């Protein structure tokens, strides 16, 4: 396992990991094998911290994956409001075992949290806890049944693909309440499909990508919501142009971009206080980003202040912008320019790159020596 390899590499360098941070489940509901990960880390006395923002419901139904805590995690951070019924902004931090110093955590929280917490948020957390405790065995029955019904109906619609565990040997488990739907065979981007579903059918997606979108089923989901979703997808299938068929359609849902060429030149704090200037996108490669560039949905930053602007990030941003993504955080949401930190910059590539500039609905390629 890569976790074991990473720990051994650190040992060879004379270092030891302070902790292991795992995101499980992901936005798409993909869960890691936390039992095996925790077993490996604990054999080295390394605590495991799990970003379980989308997994506050795990373990509360036989059809749901196990929670990270039940598999041995030392700390689990949950955004309770994302799947359960607490108010937005409310979350929980769970801890167990003796590898983590609870007193240090308490002192850290005292430094970061408000001394005047919202009792509305706290009360909503307690209400969500009580709701689960009163009916923990059956509370998700309806939501899971509706998800299964949706999967069955959607699987019969031409040109639509659904992300399933069997399509990916590396998947351990997937949350059945997350439904990722691919629409690329219809000649549509996820952003275009999202616009139609939202505006014409009242269906709101949780996450939107270039070729797919993800839906979150929860305790508030009703059968009417499923029927509207199915009607919307049938409409997309009937009105869209079908390009060439794609082989192994299940595996082609796996197009989620992973930007691995991430280079940080300065801390976000240093970038925040640095002198800045605006540059055309054609001259931005190698500059240090001075703003947050964040496609929405889902609101995950592609560039943060202090990060070097790479060709990989630029190409991705321009691609999703051309497909209808909304860019937040950037001063120029059309992405014809960036705010960068003055007096800094790096030569990342001397080759000629081709990107796209945007002028309304006209997408003209710009060629330049970056």
Automatic annotation (TrEMBL):
It comes from the Eukaryota. The keyword Lyase applies. The keyword Iron-sulfur does not apply. Residues 232-321 form the Orn/Lys/Arg decarboxylase C-terminal domain. SUPFAM superfamilies: Ornithine decarboxylase C-terminal domain, PLP-dependent transferases. Pfam families: OKR_DC_1, OKR_DC_1_C. Its cofactor is pyridoxal 5'-phosphate. Residues 15-159 form the Orn/Lys/Arg decarboxylases family 1 pyridoxal-P attachment site domain. Keywords: Decarboxylase, Lyase, Pyridoxal phosphate. GO terms for molecular function: carboxy-lyase activity. Belongs to the Orn/Lys/Arg decarboxylase class-I family. This is Arginine decarboxylase. It comes from Solanum commersonii. The lineage of its organism: Eukaryota, Viridiplantae, Streptophyta, Embryophyta, Tracheophyta.
């Amino acid at each position: 396992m890569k976790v074991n390899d990473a720990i051994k590499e650190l040992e060879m360098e004379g270092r030891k990991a302070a902790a292991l941070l795992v995101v499980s489940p992901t936005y798409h509901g993909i869960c890691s094998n936390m039992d095996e990960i925790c077993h490996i880390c604990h054999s080295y006395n390394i605590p495991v911290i799990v970003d379980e923002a989308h997994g506050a419901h795990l373990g509360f139904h036989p059809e749901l994956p196990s929670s990270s805590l039940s598999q041995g995690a030392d700390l689990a951070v949950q955004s309770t409001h994302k799947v359960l019924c607490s108010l937005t902004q409310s979350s929980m931090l769970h801890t167990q075992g003796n590898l983590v110093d609870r007193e240090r955590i308490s002192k850290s929280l005292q430094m970061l949290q408000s001394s005047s917490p919202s009792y509305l948020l706290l009360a909503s957390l307690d209400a969500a806890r009580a709701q689960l405790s009163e009916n923990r065995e059956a509370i998700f029955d309806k939501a899971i049944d509706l998800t299964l019904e949706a999967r069955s109906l959607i699987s019969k619609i031409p040109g639509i693909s659904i992300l399933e565990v069997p399509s990916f040997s590396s998947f351990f488990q997937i949350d059945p309440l997350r439904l990722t739907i691919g629409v690329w065979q219809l000649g549509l981007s996820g952003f275009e499909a999202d616009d139609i579903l939202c505006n014409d059918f009242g269906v709101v997606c949780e996450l939107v990508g270039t070729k797919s979108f993800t839906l979150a089923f929860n305790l508030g989901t009703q059968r009417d919501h499923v029927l509207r979703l199915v009607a919307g997808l049938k409409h997309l299938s009937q009105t869209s142009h079908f390009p060439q068929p794609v082989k192994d359609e299940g595996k082609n849902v796996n197009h989620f971009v992973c930007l691995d060429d991430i280079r940080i030149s300065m801390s976000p704090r240093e970038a925040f206080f640095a002198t800045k200037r605006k540059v055309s996108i054609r001259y931005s490669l190698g500059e240090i980003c001075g703003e947050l560039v964040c496609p929405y949905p889902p609101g995950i930053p592609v560039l943060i202040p202090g990060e070097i602007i790479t060709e990989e990030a630029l190409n991705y941003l321009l691609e999703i912008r051309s497909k209808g993504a909304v860019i937040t955080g950037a001063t120029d949401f059309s992405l014809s320019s960036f705010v960068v930190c003055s007096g800094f910059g790096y030569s990342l590539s001397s080759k000629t790159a081709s990107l796209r500039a945007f002028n309304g609905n006209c997408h003209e390629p710009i060629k330049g020596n970056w």
